């Protein structure tokens, strides 16, 4: 689906340069999910029947079971030495746009290459190469405004679209290191539904990226590390995997229950790497409003919401997200045990 250019022209004209900062609101709470990743946790991705993660300066990905336990090596080490690999970003595909369901993709800030693994860790290949700047985040368009392509941001500020065949096209350039990636689940003030929003930690800038590559500023959050829109269907599946998860560098991986975010459906959640703060950004009808809603126990890295649409990609289109269904392998066992899960996290530490 393509958005007419005139729609984005109106969008750019409407967004205000200033935003409103409000007092602290309801506090978001966190609890440990993965007690130890065997290193300093950075990336973490939900991959259907497992989670796959990365540690800082370590080229060996790891996996856990759906309870966050049974940590073990995943696949072959990335072909970049651990001494230079730095931050490693991990994501898994949604089974949309020609991509397989829950294949694993990883990249490092040390190189402009995205590597692909089969879901079981076999078949490592260089999937996309020649990106300008090191890989800083990987995400998949869930709504179709960007053709359900993979979206990659780099340390050089380049934003790329990559098809399921590995064809790379530059979408935009922010001109600065860019990490956070998320997609608006509905119209976000003047930002059209499905639009990509990116975060740049150095300036704290949050920008909307139109399908034609044009950039529009939204607001600024100090040291903006991660951006995640609160999904509209948060909590509807009845699956205990639902919630908000993030790497709590350098200690563990943590979770916040989905009930902490039900007041913020459709809003944008932003974390500050240096401040450790969690912000809610909403639209009040005339401007964007930023409200402090929590604090990480340590340094926040990337995070994401696990919802019915993550557990069962495409369910929004078929109206099958609710009803307490538990679509993923192993989830019935988790329901019986009352265990929790973790979503895909794709970015990693920007060294202070």
TrEMBL record:
Residues 1-26 form the signal peptide. It comes from the Bacteria. It holds the Pfam family PEP-CTERM. Keywords: Signal. Residues 325-347 form the Ice-binding protein C-terminal domain. This is PEP-CTERM sorting domain-containing protein.
């Amino acid at each position: 689906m393509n958005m007419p250019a005139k729609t984005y022209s109106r969008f750019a004209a409407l967004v205000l340069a200033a935003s409103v900062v409000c007092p602290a609101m309801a506090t978001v709470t966190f609890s440990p999910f993965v007690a130890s990743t065997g290193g300093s946790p950075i990336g973490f991705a939900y991959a259907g029947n497992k989670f796959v993660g990365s540690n800082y300066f370590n080229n060996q990905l790891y996996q856990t079971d759906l309870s966050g336990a049974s940590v073990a090596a995943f696949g072959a080490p990335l072909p970049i030495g651990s001494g230079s690999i730095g931050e490693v970003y991990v994501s898994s595909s949604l089974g949309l746009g020609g991509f397989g369901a829950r294949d694993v993709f990883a990249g490092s800030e040390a190189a402009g290459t995205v590597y692909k693994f089969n879901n079981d860790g076999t078949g490592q290949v260089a999937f996309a190469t020649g990106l300008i700047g090191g890989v800083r985040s990987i995400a998949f368009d869930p709504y179709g405004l960007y053709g359900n392509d993979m979206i990659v941001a780099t340390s050089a500020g380049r934003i790329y679209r990559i098809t399921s065949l590995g064809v790379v096209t530059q979408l935009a350039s922010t001109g600065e290191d860019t990490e956070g990636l998320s997609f608006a689940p509905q119209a976000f003030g003047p930002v059209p539904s499905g639009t990509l929003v990116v975060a740049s930690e150095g300036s704290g800038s949050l920008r909307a990226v139109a399908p034609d590559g044009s950039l529009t500023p939204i607001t600024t959050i100090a040291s903006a590390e991660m951006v995640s829109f609160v999904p509209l269907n948060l909590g509807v599946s009845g699956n205990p995997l639902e919630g908000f998860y993030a790497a709590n560098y350098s200690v563990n991986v943590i979770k916040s229950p989905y009930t902490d975010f039900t007041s913020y459906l459709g809003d944008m959640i932003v974390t500050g790497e240096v401040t450790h703060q969690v912000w809610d950004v909403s639209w009040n009808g005339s401007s964007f409003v930023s409200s402090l809603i929590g604090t990480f126990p340590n340094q926040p890295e990337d995070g994401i919401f696990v919802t019915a649409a993550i557990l069962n990609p495409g369910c929004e289109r078929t109206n099958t997200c609710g009803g307490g269904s538990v679509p993923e392998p192993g989830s019935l066992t988790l329901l019986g045990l009352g265990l929790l899960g973790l979503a895909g996290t794709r970015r990693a530490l920007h060294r202070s």
